[in-house]
Amino acid sequence: MRKLTVALGDRSYPILIGEGVLDRTDAILAALKTPRVAIVTNDVVAPLYLGRLEAALRSVDVACDSVILPDGEAHKNWQTLNTIFDGLLAGHFDRSTTLIALGGGVVGDMAGFAAATYQRGIPFIQIPTTLLSQVDSSVGGKTAINHPLGKNMIGAFHQPRLVLADTSTLTTLPDRELKAGLAEVIKYGLIRDPAFFDWIETNIERLLAREPQALGEAIERSCANKARIVSEDETERGVRALLNLGHTFGHAIEAGMGFGVWLHGEAVAAGMVMAACLSNRLGWLSARQYERTVALIGRTGLPVRGPKLGAARYLELMAHDKKVDAGRLRLVLLRDIGDAEIFADLPAVEIAAAIDACCEPS
Amino acid sequence: MRKLTVALGDRSYPILIGEGVLDRTDAILAALKTPRVAIVTNDVVAPLYLGRLEAALRSVDVACDSVILPDGEAHKNWQTLNTIFDGLLAGHFDRSTTLIALGGGVVGDMAGFAAATYQRGIPFIQIPTTLLSQVDSSVGGKTAINHPLGKNMIGAFHQPRLVLADTSTLTTLPDRELKAGLAEVIKYGLIRDPAFFDWIETNIERLLAREPQALGEAIERSCANKARIVSEDETERGVRALLNLGHTFGHAIEAGMGFGVWLHGEAVAAGMVMAACLSNRLGWLSARQYERTVALIGRTGLPVRGPKLGAARYLELMAHDKKVDAGRLRLVLLRDIGDAEIFADLPAVEIAAAIDACCEPS
């Protein structure tokens, strides 16, 4: 088992990574205020892992309720969130009870936002069961739901008390979702860890083959990068924004296609190619490093081109992005692999040209 | 003009109280990150004060949008909240823009919760226009919406950057709402300020006659009490819970009658009588002080009895209250006027008896 800590003073919390950590009741008990939890999961994950988690908790006298959401980004909205509130209120959950998110990024974001706002905040635990949520969304306390006009537009910062990343849950993950998770893994290499990027280049086949040792290493190095960034900048006033590499383009893809059509990781992959392309066009990222970036994303089986929405539509959707500051679009670009920076006031014509160059031919 | 400060480190903020402070653009400008605001108000307040505030802001080059909500507690729900999000997103509001709540407690709670969760948090300013919101809800950062199963069940702690309490707005306040606000004024005397309670007893006729000097004094002393409590305990882990005197009973009245039938302050008034009655029955509050409490609430024209829902129904509704901790109902009771304390595990039969004694005859 690997263990990391997100250092945030009296709100610091551990991340445990490894085979079978899902029902580490010692860690869960240490995180609870009272022996009562509500497990939020979805209808795909519930048949796989809910019974095991409930049995483990009940064996140590923790009372469990569960709320099962429909699966998918398309349900990351207020209506679905409200089913969590309904369950908590019907069960008379109070401020001392704990919410456990068991599932992927959508479950984690919604359960986290429910925990952030139920009675103005209750404790929660993340048990991510997808690669994407294990390497990214379960760590750092960002929670949200979507609005028809934009992804993750309604949300809160609310840190979990514990993250349990059980690598054995990845054996049941569909191939497409494994690859989507690898997009965020590659991201850490691109923004701040060139040695990790090299390691991924060397080990991408092992990762795609789901070798447990390789997956454990990738998750640990990803979470270590994420934990350090979150410790430095919890509420994204500075360095944390680098984690949005590819995300502004990616959000435009997700919103433009309708949430749930492209997986988040797929959209981020194409978005990172667009960001790298723009970085190259502006003379910051060398052609060689741009090619390495595109090649690794391609070898992972992720899209290296975005859907042909038209550059104007991309720019319109990007204007709704949360990274917009005082009306100025801010983008994370690359000076090199492992060296990202935030830029504002980039020429729209260059952004549009990069988008056009990285979209599917019509 | 009177000025107070809520001391919360780098999130400290001023409260300005006085005639005409509504359009103190110097204070507003100092609180903005960028010169762009969205004013959230309702259809009763908008015709009275929105134009004046917009004109003042535009005269100092602040761009204003506005979102006008339907008036009333019955609209304090997700659907109404979403109209704020719609307006912010349609106007391309970003994280640097500021939300201004112009209105009573419902507007402040909803605009505050929108500010807490829009893009995971944007700055906001409170301009309360009712006595209740000036003395209580605009200060301290509690924001929320209601759920059919409970009042203020979904919310967040999100401190404003400025509170402007313009006493001249109270001239347009309906009598019933003025009295509802006085319930919270009396509360401060009861929980921690016996000298203030004496002052209210002496000056209640001046307050009911809306003498500006008396209202200014009552608001300042109320806010000073509130500010000190919030500074000591921002997220209600301890002393802040004393502010809930009468509120657990009161929430049961509001929920039991349907939100909006009883005003919040009216329900709190009857709830404070119940709490005082229970305190007396348990031997903590003397008969003399109990009588003073009931007499002052009665002289204010506030209800000294609750609706006849039946004690069992009260207890059921109270079990949903946020003050419930680990399944134990906690109530704020009085040892004396000016000396409140939190009690758990009180005998249900005594609570029921106090409720029955303080309800309208059938």
From TrEMBL, chains A, B:
<dbReference type="GO" id="GO:0003856">
    <property type="term" value="F:3-dehydroquinate synthase activity"/>
</dbReference>
<keyword id="KW-0862">Zinc</keyword>
<feature type="binding site">
    <location>
        <begin position="129"/>
        <end position="130"/>
    </location>
    <ligand>
        <name>NAD(+)</name>
    </ligand>
</feature>
<feature type="domain" description="3-dehydroquinate synthase N-terminal">
    <location>
        <begin position="67"/>
        <end position="179"/>
    </location>
</feature>
<comment type="function">
    <text>Catalyzes the conversion of 3-deoxy-D-arabino-heptulosonate 7-phosphate (DAHP) to dehydroquinate (DHQ).</text>
</comment>
<feature type="binding site">
    <location>
        <position position="151"/>
    </location>
    <ligand>
        <name>NAD(+)</name>
    </ligand>
</feature>
<dbReference type="InterPro" id="IPR030963">
    <property type="entry name" value="DHQ_synth_fam"/>
</dbReference>
<feature type="binding site">
    <location>
        <position position="264"/>
    </location>
    <ligand>
        <name>Zn(2+)</name>
    </ligand>
</feature>
<feature type="binding site">
    <location>
        <position position="184"/>
    </location>
    <ligand>
        <name>Zn(2+)</name>
    </ligand>
</feature>
<dbReference type="GO" id="GO:0000166">
    <property type="term" value="F:nucleotide binding"/>
</dbReference>
<comment type="pathway">
    <text>Metabolic intermediate biosynthesis; chorismate biosynthesis; chorismate from D-erythrose 4-phosphate and phosphoenolpyruvate: step 2/7.</text>
</comment>
<dbReference type="GO" id="GO:0009073">
    <property type="term" value="P:aromatic amino acid family biosynthetic process"/>
</dbReference>
<dbReference type="Pfam" id="PF24621">
    <property type="entry name" value="DHQS_C"/>
</dbReference>
<dbReference type="Pfam" id="PF01761">
    <property type="entry name" value="DHQ_synthase"/>
</dbReference>
<feature type="binding site">
    <location>
        <begin position="105"/>
        <end position="109"/>
    </location>
    <ligand>
        <name>NAD(+)</name>
    </ligand>
</feature>
<feature type="binding site">
    <location>
        <begin position="71"/>
        <end position="76"/>
    </location>
    <ligand>
        <name>NAD(+)</name>
    </ligand>
</feature>
<dbReference type="InterPro" id="IPR016037">
    <property type="entry name" value="DHQ_synth_AroB"/>
</dbReference>
<protein>
    <recommendedName>
        <fullName>3-dehydroquinate synthase</fullName>
        <ecNumber>4.2.3.4</ecNumber>
    </recommendedName>
</protein>
<keyword id="KW-0479">Metal-binding</keyword>
<feature type="binding site">
    <location>
        <begin position="169"/>
        <end position="172"/>
    </location>
    <ligand>
        <name>NAD(+)</name>
    </ligand>
</feature>
<keyword id="KW-0520">NAD</keyword>
<dbReference type="InterPro" id="IPR056179">
    <property type="entry name" value="DHQS_C"/>
</dbReference>
<keyword id="KW-0963">Cytoplasm</keyword>
<dbReference type="GO" id="GO:0046872">
    <property type="term" value="F:metal ion binding"/>
</dbReference>
<keyword id="KW-0547">Nucleotide-binding</keyword>
<dbReference type="InterPro" id="IPR050071">
    <property type="entry name" value="Dehydroquinate_synthase"/>
</dbReference>
<comment type="similarity">
    <text>Belongs to the sugar phosphate cyclases superfamily. Dehydroquinate synthase family.</text>
</comment>
<keyword id="KW-0057">Aromatic amino acid biosynthesis</keyword>
<keyword id="KW-0028">Amino-acid biosynthesis</keyword>
<feature type="domain" description="3-dehydroquinate synthase C-terminal">
    <location>
        <begin position="181"/>
        <end position="324"/>
    </location>
</feature>
<dbReference type="InterPro" id="IPR030960">
    <property type="entry name" value="DHQS/DOIS_N"/>
</dbReference>
<dbReference type="GO" id="GO:0005737">
    <property type="term" value="C:cytoplasm"/>
</dbReference>
<dbReference type="GO" id="GO:0009423">
    <property type="term" value="P:chorismate biosynthetic process"/>
</dbReference>
<dbReference type="GO" id="GO:0008652">
    <property type="term" value="P:amino acid biosynthetic process"/>
</dbReference>
<keyword id="KW-0456">Lyase</keyword>
<keyword id="KW-0170">Cobalt</keyword>
<feature type="binding site">
    <location>
        <position position="142"/>
    </location>
    <ligand>
        <name>NAD(+)</name>
    </ligand>
</feature>
<feature type="binding site">
    <location>
        <position position="247"/>
    </location>
    <ligand>
        <name>Zn(2+)</name>
    </ligand>
</feature>
